[in-house]
Amino acid sequence: MVAPSPFAADLLSDTLTRPTEAMRQAMARAEVGDDVFGEDPTLRALEERVAGMLGHEAALFTPSGSMANQLGVRLHVRPGEELIGDSLAHVVRAELGAAAVLSGISSRTWLSERGRFRADDAASLMVTGVGPYQVCTSLVIVENTHNFGGGTVQSLDEIRRAREVTRDRGVAMHLDGARLFNAHVASGVPVDDYGREFDTVSICLSKGLGAPVGSVLVGSADAMAESRIWRKRFGGGMRQAGILAAAGLYALDHNVERLADDHARARRAAEAMAEAAPGCVDLATVETNIVIVDVASMGWTSAAFVDAALADGVRTYAVGPGAVRLVWHLDVDDAGTDVAVDVLTRLLRSAPAA
Ligand SMILES: Cc1ncc(COP(=O)(O)O)c(C=O)c1O
């Protein structure tokens, strides 16, 4: 059973989605085997499908997006070498130092505007061919869409320009595509057009796509064979995981195109807030399912705003002292969006309690 949400609109994160009855039925019907022995047919089917969708040879199912990213990172960067990415990237900011702790990798970052990827930023930070004198850059990380940047869709042209530079300099590229399908739906760029520009790509099934658990890493057959070993070493070898893969297959069949609904609801709410409180949302920044609201421009701290919205049944997330993030997903429909718009516009218009 899907328990009713205690919130009128839960905009905390798109990781909150709960599997629908239909998805649960698909999970219950899944044919399974022991995946550590490579014998789970549903998992094999999911891996083959995702590899094909992203234009790669092979794939590996992982329990989380963080594990998929960390397996990708470890493939390309040896201990003592570095990865580079923007300072808001999930890999450097929100995986709790995993690259350093698990793989002995250091990270350097450039500043970006809302996580927007620019080939020049990567090229100017990259250090190669410096022998034993400096840390060598082995990997560039790109995140698409960009979570902490506010759902920013990356430009394929910029990615291609970076690919030319990295190819020349022997540096690998990994795409954190936790929300790659949001980027695809918003931009119309086929997912494999993004996918083919990278050595490895991770995608998440458990965010906007609505599966309860699971991510997939794609790359060459050799790279995935090596990642399979490291996944087991990291404790991520799973047994009858076809139950989870069935949810992923269901999500790919039913929940990709509907991401456009989340984007439309996010935009509708953003427009209402921008009209109610001019300056609090820059509409040009609302590209997908994430809206960042500058509540400080209306005299609020993010903590006070989050509490006030919660008291009226709308859960949001403070992403800085004066900014609040709202994320649309499968479990927030038009009615939930109406409530969110009512509550949030009223709060933005009113002065916070002293
Ligand atoms: C961009 C991005 N990458 C990776 C992850 C990690 O996913 P997980 O929570 O499954 O480890 C997240 C999670 O929110 C994310 O937003």
Describe the protein.
- The chain is 42% helix and 15% strand.
- The chain has helices at 21-29, 41-53, 65-76, 90-93, 98-103, 119-125, 156-169, 180-187, 191-195, 221-233, 242-254, 259-276, 302-311, 334-349, and strands at residues 9-10, 58-62, 82-86, 106-110, 137-143, 172-177, 200-204, 215-219, 290-294, 314-315, 317-318, 323-327.
- The model has no long low-confidence stretch (mean pLDDT 97).
- Helix 1 (21-29) crosses helix 11 (242-254) and helix 12 (259-276) runs parallel beside helix 14 (334-349).
- The protein has 354 residues and is of the alpha/beta class.
- Helix 7 links the parallel strand 5 and strand 6 (172-177).
- It has a seven-stranded mixed sheet, sandwiched between helices.
- It is globular.
- It binds pyridoxal-5'-phosphate.
- Residues 15, 64-66, 69, 90, 143, 147, 176, 178, 204, 206, 215 line the site of pyridoxal-5'-phosphate.
- The site of pyridoxal-5'-phosphate has 13 residues, from helix 3.
